[in-house]
Give the backbone structure.
Amino acid sequence: MSEDSYMSELSFWNLIDVTLAAAEALTTSYDKQQGIQIDALLQALRHFNPEEIVFFQNRLNQLFAQTDTSHIACAGYLMSGGFHNADEFDHFRYWLISRGETVYRAALHKPDDLVGLVACQPDFRYGFADFPDIAPILFQRHTGRDLDGYLAHDYYLNSTEELDWDENDHRSMQRICPRLFAQYWRG
């Protein structure tokens, strides 16, 4: 699919930043911010037509695919106290996107830099399981149809990287994300 079937990155990040700011203005708890941000995104996107909802989801999926890296997996593993299944890594990646462009770009460039960008909340698992459900819910409400059949799938061209760290070798994680390791490792 062409870039025309994607919401512009500027528009996408503006939506994320505005809804995140609304959530952060009300609470510092990541858990509570998620519900507020979902409500704000639902409010913002409910005025979109079905095609625009598809474009939003295409951009989300593309940005999500770009976070499928070994070093981001290491950062998420450390911050979340481990992953019990593959879905938890996905939830971490959606959480990164939900935190806005600055956090997202920092994680892509050097995941260890998340130390200075996000608050340490020891009881939070650093994931956002409901984040990818926003557009499908709205699309269903608008059209009565499932969104999946309308999405671009070219964003999955990047395959999963082989991990260059081992959860059983804490030194391998420390080598990749030394500051995150110092802040979050409980091994």
About this structure: The radius of gyration is 17 Å. Residues 3-184 form one domain. The first helix runs from residue 9 to 26.
